[in-house]
């Protein structure tokens, strides 16, 4: 996309601090706002380019525009742990980034100490930055904006420094681009989408239960796209029994969402497509104590079973929030969908309406009993969209609005200035998990490359600790497939992809895993972590700043490296970090490790 406009349209007479002169009129202001809105919408479009290839993550896009109105560079964040959109856009623009304007759909913010996005804009000579919205996470909110302004860049935020109908529409597109992150931050549950296909008379199956196929192939392909942009797909026990679904994205590679079955009784068949975990894993959530023998059967199949004292959608979604999920797609029947809506966890609805009539007094509908007796009680969708998909009509809309980010929530620094007694991130136990968390730099997925000695005595660069760890499951195995696997992991574009390749190969081809892996994996992780926290001073300082606190990787499902859901995990990642912290505190100021180099 290449946009070119008159230089005069860059200036305006609004209250946006953009060097306006008294002679400019409303037409110039509208023209300027149209330009800003156009570039921001392009940044939003770029932000979604990684959809379906990586696990959902905050979506960032950046457009660099010259004073003459030409797009000089663009970039988007591919996945957590990869190079920021701003870095890619400035590199693409080259010298044209000098005196240019950068348009960002959202304020930069990721891992602690990773200032590459801000540094790229400053070092690239960008003079002005227009931001769609502040970062929704409180510990990141406003940090990049203050950093840019402290370096002399002019920073404007839509809805704060720029206001008009066009600007508001552009800002809304920014909210939609990161709706999962915003909703998750505000409500502490993942962003949940209820999807169903129904006939024109509102049936999701015939009276017999037969439901293949209501919607067209074109609509089903759209569903595969929705799945590919979700962290997980959830169905109820009835759907698992009746339809025997696979719940795969079927896009020929890339991110595959987790499959979740929610069943109170655990009355499920022993033969089911969902028990085939060769390509993607399955989690079964159930009532505590349900069918212990069947739980053991599922465990033998590699199925994870999670028990709840009270099984309801709110409890389940809070659990998956803690597990780090951003987006859940519900493809369940009417009983579970009604429970999810009643629990307030459904944010958006996608309804595919097929031009068919099936009838049937007992034919099921997409939503079961909600306890409403008058039409005035009906739930209205917000921001409804209509789209023809093949012969079907797709109706989509929000059941609850995306939380607005205004008024501005103070950042940690701002809060401390208001009230020095408020220190929200100081505690005896420090949890870390996702890279965008306050202590996200402790994650193996953080964007900190390391250089390590390989088996030939040479130094090799690894994009992240996760790349190094996953590859070393197969290092030294005398098999061409294992050697190819090591190279594939090493060249993976993101830590998420490196983890997916390593875990998949270990699950599908366990004979390729080195025979001593269980005895050496802790040492492999230790070496990589020591390198990472030795060569990055800000990470070392961050680790040392936690002295006296217990470090816990807040993974509720990894009972070896993480702390587990109820503290039952071994937390070896936290243990290693605490061990390193102790070693660093007892060492001289010069920290080094013979097996690693700075990068």
TrEMBL record:
GO cellular component, one term: chloroplast
EC number from the UniProt entry: 1.1.1.193
Residue span(s) of domain CMP/dCMP-type deaminase: 34-156
Keyword flag Plastid: yes
GO biological process: carbohydrate derivative metabolic process; chloroplast organization; FAD metabolic process; response to high light intensity; riboflavin biosynthetic process
PROSITE patterns: CYT_DCMP_DEAMINASES_2
Location of this chain's protein in the cell: Plastid, Chloroplast
Pathway: Cofactor biosynthesis; riboflavin biosynthesis; 5-amino-6-(D-ribitylamino)uracil from GTP: step 3/4
Coiled-coil segments: none
Single annotated GO MF: hydrolase activity, hydrolyzing N-glycosyl compounds
Keyword NAD on entry: no
Source organism superkingdom: Eukaryota
Family assignment from sequence similarity: In the C-terminal section; belongs to the YbiA family.
Official protein name in the record: Riboflavin biosynthesis protein PYRR, chloroplastic
Organism: Rosa chinensis
